[in-house]
């Protein structure tokens, strides 16, 4: 296992796509610590509290995606049961590196959040209503959606400027990259846009906070 791997170009893009899944992230974290089989990874992903069963074919699919991205590799076999008394063997897997870094010069190809337009934001607000948010007033709902959309558009404008700045950094952990880009996406806005961004953020969150609190007693799924 390598101590450090720096990914660039298509490798970086494939790695980000592969890790856009919580189960694969858990698997990679475990395989950095030790070699594991498919069965052991199934046990790892199962949650005893809710009786969730993870099928071997699901784990095998995740392993294939991680292997394609170069994040894991097969590392030998061992007898099923581990006592050497059987000819049936199982594959063992391990991570290819203890630490993975992505060169930011190629980060433009990383998957972005999907663009949220007014219609899809209205759908989002509609789901909030189903969860118990007190959003029965259609006028208020539309105002929230419009303000949310305008705020996102400002953030996206700042993000494009932030990406240009981040290209100057030779290599950085993808989590750190995302955090820095999020910060720069806001502070790179001009004064008018910056003020409007935070005004919209406060307006939207205040309205949703009130709707959430008013809806708590109406829907037991809201805590």
Could you describe the largest sheet, including whether it forms a barrel? Answer: 2 strands, parallel
CATH superfamily of the largest domain: Winged helix-like DNA-binding domain superfamily/Winged helix DNA-binding domain
How much helical structure, as a percent, in the residues? 55-70%
What spatial order of strands do you see in the largest sheet? 1-4
Q: Could you explain the architecture of this structure?
A:
The protein is of the alpha+beta class and 223 residues long. The protein has two domains: 2-105, Winged helix-like DNA-binding domain superfamily/Winged helix DNA-binding domain (Arc Repressor Mutant, subunit A), CATH 1.10.10.10; 112-215, no CATH class. The chain is built from eight helices and four strands. The protein has helices spanning 9-18, 22-33, 38-45, 56-68, 118-130, 138-166, 174-187, 191-215, and strands spanning 2-7, 72-79, 89-95, 97-102. Strands 1-4 form a two-stranded parallel sheet. A two-stranded antiparallel ribbon has the order 2-3. Helix 5 (118-130) packs across helix 6, helix 6 crosses helix 7 and helix 6 crosses helix 8 (191-215). It starts with a strand and ends in an 8-residue tail after the last helix. 16% of the residues are buried. Residues 109-115 and 219-223 have low confidence and may be disordered.
């Amino acid at each position: 296992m390598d101590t450090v791997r720096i990914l660039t170009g298509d490798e970086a893009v494939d790695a980000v796509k592969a890790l856009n899944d919580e189960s694969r992230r858990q698997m990679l974290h475990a395989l950095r610590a030790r070699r594991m089989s498919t069965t052991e990874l199934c046990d790892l992903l199962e949650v005893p509290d809710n009786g969730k069963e993870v099928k071997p074919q699901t784990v095998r699919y995740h392993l294939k995606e991680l292997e394609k991205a170069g994040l894991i590799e097969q590392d030998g076999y061992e007898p099923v049961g581990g006592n050497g008394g059987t000819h049936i063997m199982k594959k063992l897997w391990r991570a290819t590196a203890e630490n993975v870094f992505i060169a930011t010069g190629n980060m433009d190809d990383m998957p972005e959040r999907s663009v949220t337009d007014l219609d899809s934001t209205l759908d989002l607000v509609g789901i909030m209503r189903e969860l118990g948010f007190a959003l029965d007033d259609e006028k208020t709902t539309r105002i929230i959606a419009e303000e949310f959309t305008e705020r996102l558009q400002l953030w996206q404008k700042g993000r494009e400027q932030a990406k240009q700045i981040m290209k100057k950094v030779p290599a950085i952990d993808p989590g750190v990259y995302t955090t820095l880009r999020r910060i720069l996406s806001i502070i790179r806005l001009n004064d008018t846009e910056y003020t409007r961004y935070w005004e919209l953020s406060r307006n939207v969150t205040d309205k949703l906070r009130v709707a959430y609190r008013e809806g708590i007693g109406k829907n037991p799924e809201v805590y």
